[in-house]
Design goal:
Blueprint (H helix, E strand, L loop, with lengths): L1 H39 L7 H33 L4
Helix pairs in contact: 1-2
Length: 84
């Protein structure tokens, strides 16, 4: 029984970690979009450099998330194509 309990904990850990990562990427994208809007509106307190850095962070986070998704889909496909 302890093995099953440990398995449930690790699954919840992965699910939680994935959820946190997606929320973090979403927050970064929202921040970049907000800064971009502020620059377009001419807000003098928001610099173009800060906005560009936020946009690059959002892009890198999105690309990393996309790579994780692609690898998960590939792993799923590999498992489904295994002979039993």
């Amino acid at each position: 029984m302890p093995v099953a309990k440990g398995k449930a904990v690790s699954e919840a850990g992965f699910s939680h970690a994935l959820t946190q990562a997606l929320q973090s990427v979403s927050a970064t994208q929202n921040e970049a979009a907000s800064l971009q809007r502020e620059v377009q509106m001419g807000n003098p307190t928001v610099s173009i450099e800060e906005t560009m850095v936020a946009m690059q962070k959002a892009q890198i986070g999105f690309q990393a998330t996309l790579q994780v998704r692609n690898r998960l889909v590939q792993a799923y496909s590999d498992i489904m194509n295994m002979n039993v």
